[in-house]
Amino acid sequence: MSDKPWGGRFKESTSLAVEAYTESISFDSALYAQDIAGSKAHARMLGERGVLSREEAARLIDGLERVKREIEEGVFPWKQELEDVHMNIETRLTELVGEVGKKLHTGRSRNDQVCLDFRLFVSDNLREWMKLTRQLIRVFVRRAEENREVLLPGCTHMQPAQPVSLAHHLLAYAWMLKRDVERMADCERRVRVSPLGAAALAGTTYDLDPAMVAEELGMYGTFDNSMDAVADRDFAEEALFCGSVCMGHLSRFCEELIWWANPMFGYVTFSDRHSTGSSIMPQKKNPDVAEIMRGKTGRVYGNLFNLMTIMKGIPLTYNRDLQEDKLPFIDTDRTVRHSLSLMADMLDGLTFHPGRMRRALASGFLNATELADYLVGKGLPFREAHHVSGRAVACAEEKGVGLEDLSLEELRAFSPLIEKDVFAALEYDRAVARRNVPGGTGPRSVAGQLKRLGEWLGGAEQA
Ligand code: ARG
């Protein structure tokens, strides 16, 4: 005879190898708080609807709270042979409250139960990601405020392109991260929808009130189709995608910081607390945190594809494959949280070197576009102006100097339209100052960006 909660029809007990292979308690115990909250809401609803007496419901709720305390005090007897978090908790509940514990599962299946727990878990964690992302945006905004006057080469193709302010460069990340928060918030509205009442797959014959459960749990609504409710995990795929995009953004900044910390650039120094040394080369100060973060991004993308691949081609409705949904999410959750908070701390501790950035402006002809625009101002069509400026660049390159180092006579050889005022046009600060189009790197535009981000951050704490 099997001693499992589902063991009625079994003569032989499960082999230990099967038990070890099919268990999920080693990872789904992370969902205990959501499981208990869901069960309390279910019990209260059963009491309200008269499926159980109010007194029975109250005893269940009280018992569930005792179970929760045991877990939080570290004295809960987790058992692998009870498979998962749901059966561990229900079994312990029955030990604590007696026979009535066996009534908790009325009108419910583990199929809708696990989906409810996981939806709550994903939603709770998404909210945490949003909070941490907002905190990181705050640091980007603060560091941008401090560095409005600092200029550095903006790149395309990793080649010097046009001068930009450091504030503008940093705010590019702030806007990416703001979209991440919005994406998470949008996703969370689809995640936090209750599947409870779908039961095994077809709904239930009990007179349940799924909306009451959803409301108690602060959910946005209830399922529309019981088969869909227990079968799909698109909500978790979406959340993993949100985490992936966010990590992708962080990894790009990591990559830039790694270059910037190289003495060839010398734009930044990491604080000692975010650097590591080499066991052989005494001079080394390595940006390991940024490198590992870039590497972990690969794992987070892998987790998205892990779940996408599990979901591919499985027939309706619940299949045990779905138990594998939690591992990638738990791993991504830990990685996203650590990465967001470490990045905030690392950016906070970063020292920028404006002198090095300014010196870098001098190589790479970052003002070549300015010369072309100057000529356009004098009436030359842009295509021709581009050509003239290109010839001046070739000449300066040959001499090993910047455009601004050529004499007026040398410049006039390329176009008689060039006059003394060209030198002002070639100044890097002016190049930046002139770009006040909305969203540009000009100081007025950057001030506007800072203002809008500040308002957004100051606004309602939810995105
Ligand atoms: N541990 C299972 C999971 O995570 C719970 C649901 C089990 N349902 C079932 N019919 N065996 O998916």
Mean pLDDT: 95
Q: Radius of gyration, Cα only, in angstroms?
A: 30 Å
**Going by CATH, what is the homologous superfamily of the largest domain?**
Fumarase/aspartase (Central domain)
Strand content: under 5%
CATH architecture assignment name of the largest domain: Up-down Bundle
The profile of the biggest β sheet is:
2 strands, antiparallel
Query: What's the number of helices?
Result: 19
Query: In one word, what is the shape?
Result: elongated
How would you describe this structure in keywords?
463 residues; mainly alpha; Fumarase C, Chain B, domain 1; two-stranded antiparallel sheet; two-stranded parallel ribbon; binds arginine
Provide the fold topology.
Elements: H1 16-22, H2 25-28, H3 32-48, H4 54-72, H5 85-97, H6 110-146, E1 151-156, E2 159-165, H7 166-191, E3 193-194, H8 210-216, E4 221-222, H9 226-231, H10 234-261, E5 268-269, H11 288-311, H12 326-348, E6 351-352, H13 354-361, H14 368-377, H15 382-399, H16 408-412, H17 422-425, H18 428-433, H19 443-458
Parallel strand pairs: 3-4
Antiparallel strand pairs: 1-2, 5-6
Helix pairs in contact: 3-4, 3-6, 3-8, 4-5, 6-7, 6-10, 6-12, 6-19, 7-10, 7-19, 10-11, 10-12, 11-12, 14-15
Bound molecules: arginine.
